[in-house]
């Protein structure tokens, strides 16, 4: 491949440019430059995707501002009476700083290292998912046991499981590439792995995280070349499993019925309480919003406004324009991740490509579910908005995953310039 970044002007072009500059410089209006020294310097090529970095930073900073806006009134509630007005803002800022520092370290790690440790990281995530279920080890909040207290932050193993399943599924498909047409040799072991993770997550319970993890695993299998008939068979099994879980769980059934008719008085004061107030927030925002900090729904009407329903606060304060910008930013980010993945696969780096595309499914799928819940398109589900909602482990693992994708892009560029990844 020819390196076009170091090509110099042809002699004829050089002479014409110099003569023109000499003619213009005779009157003293323009100094003659040393074109030989300028043209001998190679064109500078950026070594990473600056656009992706700026979009991610914009989402992180907007999330920081909106978390502060959504949580500033929480100390007025008896539940948070001992908290300062800036409590959630300062903790989110700490999580953001820790996440960015960690991402700067992760981006230095070659993808070959992640490929080697992928199975061990998956095993570690399973161990943590088991630990969180042990009484007096895992921390319970609102009836769910999903966190491990680490002092400086509460760590959520399900977030690590999303990254672990992405790396493990990509590594698995590379190892099983020769037998990907055989169901029991290619698909069944991966299905068992996802099933074990699902059982542990449903025991917390955390059905939302299981949905995201199942989507990541299925997408990587499909993108890795698994037979289409097998893919649709897996999809049918998963859909049947979700229907069975909902039908056998009374409180999940009630949530579905409340979603179908949220404005019924019983539902509006019960299972659909969050949904109705989220829709009211979007309605109040209209086109340009009520203004930053002017939300009324965050004043103890909309529960979890700084976590699961942050988009509703954005809709009320920044209006349709603000929500549209957030949706477009996520769309652009997911599209860019898939482009990086396709580029890596074209360079015969299948593991790296599947990882980038798996992270794209993770970010896009979780953002879609969160936005759908906030807008009443999907039943209420406890999933945060990636990169934006309050939550230390969520922000940390999002930044780590995107740093790995940035490393994929860096290695792609090095290979396309004739170097080594």
From the helix content, strand content and strand pairing, which structural class follows? mainly alpha
- How many beta strands in the DSSP annotation? 3
Ranges where pLDDT stays below 50 over 5 or more residues in a row are 1-11, 24-45
The rough form would be described as: globular
Report how far the terminal alpha carbons are from each other. Answer: 16 Å
Q: Helicity, in percent?
A: 55-70%
Mean pLDDT over all positions: 84
How many distinct helices? Answer: 15
**Major sheet size, sense and barrel closure:** 3 strands, antiparallel
Our count of domains comes out at: 2
- Strand arrangement within the widest β-sheet reads 1-2-3
Share of residues in strands: under 5%
Give the SSE order as H and E letters. HHHHHEEEHHHHHHHHHH
Radius of gyration: 25 Å
Topology, element by element:
Blueprint (H helix, E strand, L loop, with lengths): L10 H15 L9 H5 L10 H22 L15 H20 L4 H21 L7 E3 L2 E6 L4 E2 L1 H19 L7 H20 L4 H17 L4 H21 L1 H11 L4 H4 L4 H13 L24 H37 L3 H25 L17 H25 L5
Antiparallel strand pairs: 1-2, 2-3
Helix pairs in contact: 3-4, 3-13, 4-15, 5-6, 6-7, 6-8, 6-14, 6-15, 7-8, 8-9, 8-14, 9-10, 12-13, 13-14, 13-15, 14-15
């Amino acid at each position: 491949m020819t390196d076009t970044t170091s090509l110099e002007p042809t002699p004829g072009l050089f002479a014409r440019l110099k003569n023109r500059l000499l003619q213009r410089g005779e009157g003293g209006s323009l100094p003659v430059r040393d074109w030989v020294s300028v043209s001998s310097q190679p064109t500078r090529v950026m070594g990473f995707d600056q656009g992706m970095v700026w979009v991610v930073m914009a989402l992180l900073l907007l999330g920081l501002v909106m978390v502060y806006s959504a949580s500033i009134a929480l100390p007025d509630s008896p539940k948070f009476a001992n908290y300062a007005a800036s409590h959630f803002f300062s903790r989110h800022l700490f999580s953001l700083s820790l996440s960015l520092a960690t991402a700067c370290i992760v981006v230095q790690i070659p993808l070959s290292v992640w490929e080697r440790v992928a199975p061990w990281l998956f095993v570690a995530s399973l161990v943590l998912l088991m630990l969180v279920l042990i009484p007096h080890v895992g921390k319970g909040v609102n009836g769910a046991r999903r966190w491990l207290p680490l002092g400086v932050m509460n760590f959520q193993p399900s977030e690590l499981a999303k990254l672990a399943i992405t790396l493990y599924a990509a590594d698995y498909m590379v190892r099983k590439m020769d037998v990907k047409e055989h169901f029991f040799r290619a698909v069944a072991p991966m299905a068992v792995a996802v099933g074990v993770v699902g059982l542990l997550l449903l025991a917390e319970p955390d059905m939302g995280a299981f949905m995201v993890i199942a989507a990541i695993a299925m997408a990587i299998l499909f993108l890795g070349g698994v037979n289409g008939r097998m893919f649709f068979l897996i999809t049918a099994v998963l859909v049947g499993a979700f229907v069975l879980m909902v039908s056998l769980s009374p409180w999940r059934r009630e949530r579905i019925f409340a979603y179908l008719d949220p404005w019924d008085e019983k539902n509006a004061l019960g299972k659909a309480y969050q949904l109705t107030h989220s829709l009211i927030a979007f309605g109040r925002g209209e086109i340009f919003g009520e203004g930053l900090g002017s939300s009324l729904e965050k004043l103890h009407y909309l529960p979890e406004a700084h976590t699961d329903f942050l988009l509703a606060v954005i809709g009320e304060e920044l209006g349709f324009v603000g929500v549209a910008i957030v949706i477009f930013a996520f769309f652009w980010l997911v599209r860019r991740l898939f482009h990086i993945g396709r580029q890596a696969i074209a360079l015969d780096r299948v593991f790296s490509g599947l990882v980038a595309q798996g992270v794209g499914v993770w970010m896009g799928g979780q953002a879609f579910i969160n936005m759908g819940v906030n807008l009443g398109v999907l039943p209420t589900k406890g999933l945060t908005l990636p990169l934006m909602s309050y939550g230390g482990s969520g922000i940390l693992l999002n930044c780590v995953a995107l740093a790995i994708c940035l490393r994929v892009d860096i290695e792609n560029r090095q290979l396309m310039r004739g170097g080594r990844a």
